[in-house]
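Blackboard transcription, Thursday session:
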Amino acid sequence: RKEVEQDPGPFNVPEGATVAFNCTYSNSASQSFFWYRQDCRKEPKLLMSVYSSGNEDGRFTAQLNRASQYISLLIRDSKLSDSATYLCVVTRDRDDKIIFGKGTRLHILP
Amino acid sequence: GAVVSQHPSRVICKSGTSVKIECRSLDFQATTMFWYRQFPKKSLMLMATSNEGSKATYEQGVEKDKFLINHASLTLSTLTVTSAHPEDSSFYICSASGGSSYGYTFGSGTRLTVV
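(Written on the board underneath:)
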Protein backbone atom coordinates (compact mmCIF):
# COMPACT_ATOMS: atom_id res chain seq x y z
CA ARG A 1 0.00 0.00 0.00
CA LYS A 2 1.32 3.43 -0.89
CA GLU A 3 2.10 5.79 1.95
CA VAL A 4 -0.24 8.44 0.67
CA GLU A 5 -3.04 7.87 -1.82
CA GLN A 6 -5.34 10.26 -3.59
CA ASP A 7 -7.92 9.97 -6.33
CA PRO A 8 -6.15 11.55 -9.31
CA GLY A 9 -9.38 12.87 -10.80
CA PRO A 10 -9.94 14.99 -12.71
CA PHE A 11 -12.87 16.42 -10.86
CA ASN A 12 -14.86 18.61 -13.24
CA VAL A 13 -17.06 20.83 -11.13
CA PRO A 14 -19.30 23.75 -12.12
CA GLU A 15 -18.44 27.13 -10.69
CA GLY A 16 -20.16 27.77 -7.39
CA ALA A 17 -20.46 24.10 -6.47
CA THR A 18 -18.95 22.39 -3.47
CA VAL A 19 -16.29 19.77 -4.00
CA ALA A 20 -14.56 17.46 -1.58
CA PHE A 21 -11.76 15.00 -1.90
CA ASN A 22 -9.98 12.68 0.46
CA CYS A 23 -6.50 11.38 0.95
CA THR A 24 -5.59 8.21 2.81
CA TYR A 25 -2.30 7.49 4.50
CA SER A 26 -0.88 4.18 5.59
CA ASN A 27 1.40 5.03 8.49
CA SER A 28 -0.61 5.45 11.67
CA ALA A 29 2.33 7.23 13.28
CA SER A 30 2.25 10.03 10.74
CA GLN A 31 2.64 13.32 12.46
CA SER A 32 1.57 16.27 10.37
CA PHE A 33 -0.78 16.75 7.47
CA PHE A 34 -1.10 19.44 4.86
CA TRP A 35 -2.89 20.32 1.68
CA TYR A 36 -0.80 21.95 -1.02
CA ARG A 37 -1.99 23.47 -4.24
CA GLN A 38 0.04 23.22 -7.40
CA ASP A 39 -0.68 25.13 -10.57
CA CYS A 40 0.56 23.84 -13.88
CA ARG A 41 4.36 23.99 -14.16
CA LYS A 42 4.68 25.78 -10.83
CA GLU A 43 5.96 24.79 -7.44
CA PRO A 44 3.47 23.58 -4.82
CA LYS A 45 2.23 26.15 -2.36
CA LEU A 46 0.84 25.47 1.06
CA LEU A 47 -2.92 25.77 1.10
CA MET A 48 -3.53 24.81 4.69
CA SER A 49 -2.35 22.61 7.51
CA VAL A 50 -4.73 19.98 8.79
CA TYR A 51 -5.35 19.82 12.49
CA SER A 52 -6.95 17.07 14.52
CA SER A 53 -9.86 19.31 15.42
CA GLY A 54 -10.43 20.28 11.80
CA ASN A 55 -9.84 23.76 10.50
CA GLU A 56 -11.41 26.21 8.15
CA ASP A 57 -9.95 29.01 6.08
CA GLY A 58 -12.54 30.93 4.14
CA ARG A 59 -14.10 28.58 1.62
CA PHE A 60 -11.73 25.76 2.49
CA THR A 61 -12.23 23.21 5.24
CA ALA A 62 -9.75 20.50 6.12
CA GLN A 63 -10.37 17.57 8.39
CA LEU A 64 -8.32 14.74 9.79
CA ASN A 65 -9.66 11.33 10.73
CA ARG A 66 -6.91 9.47 12.53
CA ALA A 67 -9.01 6.39 13.21
CA SER A 68 -9.63 5.84 9.50
CA GLN A 69 -6.33 7.43 8.48
CA TYR A 70 -7.55 9.97 6.01
CA ILE A 71 -7.67 13.70 5.56
CA SER A 72 -10.19 15.62 3.55
CA LEU A 73 -10.46 18.96 1.81
CA LEU A 74 -13.76 20.67 1.16
CA ILE A 75 -14.05 23.67 -1.14
CA ARG A 76 -17.28 25.64 -1.03
CA ASP A 77 -18.55 28.10 -3.62
CA SER A 78 -15.80 27.04 -6.00
CA LYS A 79 -14.18 29.64 -8.23
CA LEU A 80 -12.54 29.29 -11.61
CA SER A 81 -9.26 30.17 -9.92
CA ASP A 82 -9.54 27.05 -7.75
CA SER A 83 -8.63 24.95 -10.78
CA ALA A 84 -5.35 23.30 -9.85
CA THR A 85 -3.88 20.08 -8.57
CA TYR A 86 -4.31 19.54 -4.85
CA LEU A 87 -1.58 17.56 -3.17
CA CYS A 88 -2.04 15.76 0.10
CA VAL A 89 1.12 15.84 2.18
CA VAL A 90 2.01 13.77 5.20
CA THR A 91 5.13 13.93 7.29
CA ARG A 92 6.65 10.87 8.84
CA ASP A 93 7.47 11.28 12.47
CA ARG A 94 10.80 9.50 12.49
CA ASP A 95 12.62 11.66 9.99
CA ASP A 96 10.35 14.56 9.21
CA LYS A 97 10.25 13.69 5.50
CA ILE A 98 7.48 15.08 3.41
CA ILE A 99 5.51 12.47 1.54
CA PHE A 100 3.29 13.69 -1.26
CA GLY A 101 0.23 12.11 -2.69
CA LYS A 102 -0.01 12.07 -6.47
CA GLY A 103 -2.47 14.90 -6.39
CA THR A 104 -6.07 15.39 -7.38
CA ARG A 105 -6.76 17.51 -10.41
CA LEU A 106 -9.65 19.90 -10.10
CA HIS A 107 -11.21 21.73 -13.02
CA ILE A 108 -13.80 24.36 -12.23
CA LEU A 109 -16.10 24.84 -15.20
CA PRO A 110 -17.68 28.20 -16.04
CA GLY B 1 7.66 34.60 5.87
CA ALA B 2 10.28 32.00 5.08
CA VAL B 3 11.66 32.33 1.58
CA VAL B 4 13.56 29.75 -0.40
CA SER B 5 15.37 30.84 -3.53
CA GLN B 6 16.14 28.25 -6.17
CA HIS B 7 18.40 28.89 -9.12
CA PRO B 8 18.40 28.52 -12.07
CA SER B 9 14.73 28.42 -12.90
CA ARG B 10 15.37 26.90 -16.27
CA VAL B 11 18.39 25.22 -17.81
CA ILE B 12 19.10 23.44 -21.06
CA CYS B 13 22.24 21.37 -21.26
CA LYS B 14 23.86 18.86 -23.55
CA SER B 15 24.00 15.17 -22.77
CA GLY B 16 27.05 14.26 -20.76
CA THR B 17 27.44 17.59 -19.04
CA SER B 18 26.76 18.37 -15.39
CA VAL B 19 24.26 20.85 -14.03
CA LYS B 20 24.23 22.40 -10.58
CA ILE B 21 21.03 23.63 -8.97
CA GLU B 22 21.16 25.84 -5.92
CA CYS B 23 18.64 26.15 -3.13
CA ARG B 24 19.02 28.93 -0.60
CA SER B 25 17.01 29.79 2.47
CA LEU B 26 16.99 33.57 2.55
CA ASP B 27 15.67 34.46 5.96
CA PHE B 28 16.01 31.35 8.06
CA GLN B 29 18.46 28.61 8.72
CA ALA B 30 17.53 25.38 7.00
CA THR B 31 18.73 22.45 9.04
CA THR B 32 17.12 20.08 6.57
CA MET B 33 16.51 20.38 2.85
CA PHE B 34 14.66 18.05 0.55
CA TRP B 35 15.11 17.56 -3.16
CA TYR B 36 12.25 16.41 -5.35
CA ARG B 37 11.74 15.77 -9.00
CA GLN B 38 8.51 15.87 -10.86
CA PHE B 39 7.70 14.42 -14.25
CA PRO B 40 4.88 15.92 -16.31
CA LYS B 41 1.47 15.27 -14.82
CA LYS B 42 3.02 13.31 -11.98
CA SER B 43 3.45 14.04 -8.31
CA LEU B 44 6.58 15.11 -6.58
CA MET B 45 9.00 12.31 -5.89
CA LEU B 46 11.40 12.70 -3.01
CA MET B 47 14.94 12.12 -4.18
CA ALA B 48 16.97 12.81 -1.09
CA THR B 49 17.15 14.53 2.24
CA SER B 50 20.15 16.64 3.08
CA ASN B 51 21.11 17.71 6.56
CA GLU B 52 23.61 20.46 7.13
CA GLY B 53 27.07 19.09 7.76
CA SER B 54 26.31 15.47 7.02
CA LYS B 55 25.80 13.21 4.04
CA ALA B 56 22.51 13.24 2.23
CA THR B 57 20.09 10.37 2.60
CA TYR B 58 18.90 9.10 -0.76
CA GLU B 59 15.59 7.43 -1.46
CA GLN B 60 15.56 3.97 -2.90
CA GLY B 61 16.28 3.94 -6.59
CA VAL B 62 18.01 7.32 -6.67
CA GLU B 63 21.64 7.14 -7.75
CA LYS B 64 23.71 9.10 -5.27
CA ASP B 65 26.69 9.24 -7.61
CA LYS B 66 24.55 10.78 -10.29
CA PHE B 67 22.67 13.25 -8.14
CA LEU B 68 25.25 14.83 -5.89
CA ILE B 69 23.88 16.79 -2.96
CA ASN B 70 25.89 19.15 -0.85
CA HIS B 71 24.50 20.98 2.17
CA ALA B 72 27.58 22.79 3.36
CA SER B 73 25.86 25.58 5.23
CA LEU B 74 22.57 26.26 6.97
CA THR B 75 21.39 28.39 4.06
CA LEU B 76 22.58 26.55 0.97
CA SER B 77 22.08 23.15 -0.54
CA THR B 78 23.09 22.19 -4.06
CA LEU B 79 22.02 19.37 -6.32
CA THR B 80 24.37 18.47 -9.14
CA VAL B 81 23.09 16.27 -11.92
CA THR B 82 26.21 14.63 -13.28
CA SER B 83 26.61 13.28 -16.80
CA ALA B 84 23.09 14.33 -17.62
CA HIS B 85 20.98 12.30 -20.03
CA PRO B 86 17.71 13.20 -21.74
CA GLU B 87 15.82 11.01 -19.27
CA ASP B 88 17.03 13.32 -16.49
CA SER B 89 14.93 16.08 -18.00
CA SER B 90 12.46 16.98 -15.30
CA PHE B 91 11.28 19.62 -12.87
CA TYR B 92 13.46 19.67 -9.77
CA ILE B 93 12.21 21.37 -6.62
CA CYS B 94 13.86 21.91 -3.29
CA SER B 95 12.16 22.35 0.03
CA ALA B 96 13.70 23.66 3.19
CA SER B 97 12.79 23.19 6.80
CA GLY B 98 14.19 25.18 9.64
CA GLY B 99 12.65 22.85 12.15
CA SER B 100 9.15 21.69 12.98
CA SER B 101 7.96 25.15 13.95
CA TYR B 102 8.80 26.57 10.54
CA GLY B 103 7.00 24.12 8.32
CA TYR B 104 8.18 23.54 4.79
CA THR B 105 8.94 26.12 2.16
CA PHE B 106 9.52 25.32 -1.50
CA GLY B 107 11.82 26.85 -4.02
CA SER B 108 10.32 27.89 -7.33
CA GLY B 109 11.76 24.88 -9.10
CA THR B 110 14.25 24.26 -11.88
CA ARG B 111 13.15 22.93 -15.22
CA LEU B 112 15.99 20.90 -16.65
CA THR B 113 16.05 19.91 -20.28
CA VAL B 114 18.86 17.68 -21.48
CA VAL B 115 19.33 17.62 -25.24
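Lecturer's comment: The interface with chain B takes residues 32, 34, 41-46, 49, 87, 95-103 of chain A (CB under 8 Å).
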